[in-house]
Amino acid sequence: MLSSVDITSNVAVYAQIENHVQFAIASGRLVSGDQLPSVRELSERLNVNPNTVAKAYRDLEVMGLLYTRRGMGVFIEKGVEQKCRENCYKRIGSRLHEVVAEARSAGMPLDDIIDIARKAYELDSDPYVETPNAIASLAKQSAKG
Amino acid sequence: MLSSVDITSNVAVYAQIENHVQFAIASGRLVSGDQLPSVRELSERLNVNPNTVAKAYRDLEVMGLLYTRRGMGVFIEKGVEQKCRENCYKRIGSRLHEVVAEARSAGMPLDDIIDIARKAYELDSDPYVETPNAIASLAKQSAKG
Amino acid sequence: MLSSVDITSNVAVYAQIENHVQFAIASGRLVSGDQLPSVRELSERLNVNPNTVAKAYRDLEVMGLLYTRRGMGVFIEKGVEQKCRENCYKRIGSRLHEVVAEARSAGMPLDDIIDIARKAYELDSDPYVETPNAIASLAKQSAKG
Amino acid sequence: MLSSVDITSNVAVYAQIENHVQFAIASGRLVSGDQLPSVRELSERLNVNPNTVAKAYRDLEVMGLLYTRRGMGVFIEKGVEQKCRENCYKRIGSRLHEVVAEARSAGMPLDDIIDIARKAYELDSDPYVETPNAIASLAKQSAKG
DNA sequence: GTGGTCTAGACCACC
DNA sequence: GTGGTCTAGACCACG
User: Fold this and answer.
1) What is the pTM of this model?
2) Which chains touch C (3 or more CB pairs under 8 A)?
3) In a domain, A5, yes or no
4) What contacts 24+ positions apart, CB below 8 Å, involve C62-71?
5) Which residues from chain D sit within 8 angstroms of residue B52, using beta carbons?
6) Nearest alpha-carbon partner for A106 in B64, B65, B46, B121
7) Rounded Cα gap, residues B141 and B36, in angstroms
8) Is residue C7 a contact partner of residue C43, using CB atoms and an 8 Å limit?
9) From CA B139, how far away is CA B33, in angstroms rounded?
10) Of A65, A104, B45, B118, which sits most exposed with the smallest number of CB within 10 A?
11) First-to-final CA distance of chain B
């Protein structure tokens, strides 16, 4: 099944979508001017309510990552790659600090932490790796179609 | 005033308390038989609703980390260090996987991740180092008082 | 390229076109009998959907500002300068009321408001000065061509 | 009737609420730490759907003007007066520029503009003057109650 | 009691 | 076709 969203996750569906888009921009899978899949299309693919997708898109627009052209669709704002990468890195850095601090506080040695990180980096199967690709390819498709 | 809880955090207050206790046990700052501060005392110190503290204690009791002696108070269960350490490690491993996956998805190279982790490990200032101590010392105090 | 329309604006494109024409008439840059550019020509120049231009022209015709001569094109109606000026003034008065009310509600003193208005009046660079000229000159051109 | 919201307006209800709050903060009718009326309470008073109020509150939180304490309610963020005032002034300045430019473009003399502004400033009856007060007093009431 | 999230379905404006 | 807005109602977590 190709549903890119984990409804059992404790992170909200709309937040997952937002993250997907942000990471896709940060890593260059989506670039300025690219059109995103329409609200309806993405909602059908992800099997979620259109409002949920719309909420994610709207948030991203408020953040300045997207813009809407009435009746046309939603597009990646110009010059957001850098800003987006900074945001993502800041977020990741902060969360990484948190978890490392927790690990140290629980008495876990640094080498174990690095070991886990290495192994995690090798794997494909995790929430934030497949989905942005899925969204990115949807975007490419609708740009073509 | 030294409030050990971050009410602005998106992590639920009761969960923060539970984590504090678990990390304190895992790292040996709290050991079997130690008495925890009473619900009322801790709630006053942390400036949170007593129900919140009560829920945390109840959860920890369900997990088998605490036991209650009527009229006496709440105590650390025997032989929980190992179990608690496992819990913490599992939690940390899971969160570490998440954030590493995000980092990779955002295009961050593995070396950067390890670098950040190293630096974070050196630092002292983080949420889970001071707070468990605070609770641990409260525990020592109420054991004495 | 000189696009007279701001597709990123939250003002609908067709409304921008209608405003451009109305202001051009009110200020005398377009006068009775002048021929407007064809729907197709204007849509190409502005790089917008022909339906959008057509809707603007239709609306303006309903308002009695334009008339269409089959096979000939679209022209400014006779004796509309006065009516058009009234429309514009009404619109401006209403919007001015709104923004002044907002300013007062935000605690901005009247003198500041007047100050800003004075300064804004001195300037050249604003949406509704250049664009109607662009349309007006298109009109002149197509009248000639 | 005490419905503070104009559902016939072309500006969205949630946007009206957002504006009310912003102007109330900018003018000092709401200050840091004040609790806002609950989503349900305000939705009943304004006779709109709770989701609409929630959306406005959420947007304001994203903008950094509010913060939420889980299970407790929504509060004005610290030190936003200045920031909020700047936002409001910028918004008003920009809109004022627009409308003045329009007025000039339509041939309206500066003195007429100032005259209208003066008169508008004297009046009470406009969307953005009563409502923030209504919200502000609701906030005060729920703080007391 | 509080807000957060999601669904289902409606209507609108724009292109 | 596109997104924007609003409603009604549900369930959840938190305090």
Assistant:
1) 0.83
2) A, D
3) no
4) C63/C87, C65/C21, C65/C22, C65/C25, C66/C21, C66/C36
5) none
6) B121
7) 9
8) no
9) 11
10) B118
11) 21
**Cβ neighbours around C15 below 10 Å, total:** 14
Confidence band (pLDDT; 50, 70, 90) for D106?
A: confident
pLDDT < 70 positions in chain A: 1-3, 124-145
DSSP letter assigned to residue D34:
P
Q: How many Å lie between the alpha carbon of D118 and the closest alpha carbon of chain C?
A: 7
Contact B53, B12 (CB under 8 A): no
Q: What is the pLDDT of residue B132?
A: 44
Residue C39 sits in the same domain as residue C90? no
Q: Which amino acid is residue A80, in one-letter code?
A: V
Instruction: State the greatest distance between any 2 C-alpha atoms of chain A, in Å, as a whole number.
Output: 56
Q: Which nucleotides in chain E lie less than 7 Å from some protein C-beta?
A: 1-9, 13-15
Question: Which residue of A lies nearest to D55 if distances are taken between CA atoms?
Answer: A55
- Asked if the C-beta of B11 comes within 8 angstroms of chain D's C-beta atoms, the answer is no
Q: Is B102 within a domain? A: yes
Burial B1-23 (b: 16+ CB within 10 A, else e): eeebbeeeeeeebbebbbbbbbb
D87 and D136 fall within a common domain? yes
B8: pLDDT confidence band, cut at 50, 70 and 90? confident
In a domain, C7, yes or no: no
| Residue B12 tokens, joined | 């639920």
Are A46 and A94 part of one and the same domain?
no
Q: Assess A120–B contact: CB distance below 8 Å, yes or no.
A: yes
Q: Which residue range forms the structural domain that includes residue D119?
A: 82-144
Q: How do residues D112-125 score in pLDDT, each as one tens digit? A: 999 999 999 998 55
Nearest protein residue to nucleotide E15 (CA to C1' distance) is A71
Tell me the torsion sign for CA atoms D18, D24, D27, D31: negative
pLDDT digits (tens, 9 = 90+) for D23-50: 999 999 999 999 999 999 999 999 999 9
Residue A6 maps to a domain: no
Place of tokens 């903060």: D25
pLDDT tens for residues C28-62? 889 999 999 999 999 999 999 999 999 999 999 99
Q: Rounded mean pLDDT of D118-141?
A: 64
Q: Does B93 touch chain A (CB under 8 A)?
A: yes
Q: How many domains does chain B have?
A: 2
